[in-house]
Amino acid sequence: MTTRKLSSTLSAALLTLAIAAPYAATAAVNDYPTVDRVEFVHMCQRENADKPPQEMVYKCSCVIDKLAVDLPYEDYVEASTAFYASTIAGERGQVIRNERVAKGLADQFRDLLGKARKSCFVS
Predict the structure, then answer these.
(1) pLDDT tens digits, residue range 2-49?
(2) Alpha-carbon distances of 49 from 6, 39, 45, 107, rounded to whole Å
(3) For residue 1, what pLDDT is reported?
(4) What's the helix, strand, coil split of the chain in %, to 5?
(5) Whether the Cβ atoms of residue 120 and residue 69 lie closer than 8 Å to each other
(6) pLDDT tens for residues 53-98?
């Protein structure tokens, strides 16, 4: 292969990477299934029932979008499950609260959720 062809091929490859890179990052942030995003927004709206519903659609959507930036979907499922399971009263919730890995996941989710809520103005 001549130097000119190699240079041309390399330039084309770099251009392709430059164009595709932002889309790859967007795809990673948008890997949450729509139904999970909708369920999160509905739950968030129920938790803030005293606020105008349309306002909370935007704010709660912001929260799940912020979480999606910080947590890949598989990690979100594990961490949110541990977090919500740890809120169960009694012995069932105690099993999760006492288990070290689940407690760590729940704490991580609690922190990320708190930061996301704060940045999206959800009390």
Answers:
(1) 655 545 544 544 445 555 555 444 445 568 999 999 999 999 999 999
(2) 62, 15, 6, 25
(3) 55
(4) 85, 0, 15
(5) no
(6) 999 999 999 999 999 999 999 999 999 999 999 888 988 788 878 8
Distances (CA, A) of 96 to 13, 58, 65, 88: 49, 32, 27, 9
Place of tokens 């947590």: 71
Query: Which pTM does this prediction carry?
Result: 0.72
Q: How far apart, in Å, are the Cα atoms of 23 and each of 14, 17, 26, 68, 96?
A: 15, 10, 5, 15, 38
Angle subtended by helix axes 100-119 and 73-86, to nearest 10 = 100
Cβ neighbours around 90 below 10 Å, total: 7
* Contact between 37 and 64 (Cβ < 8 Å): yes
Residue among 62, 109, 57 at smallest CA distance from 83: 109
- Which residue type is seen at 14? L
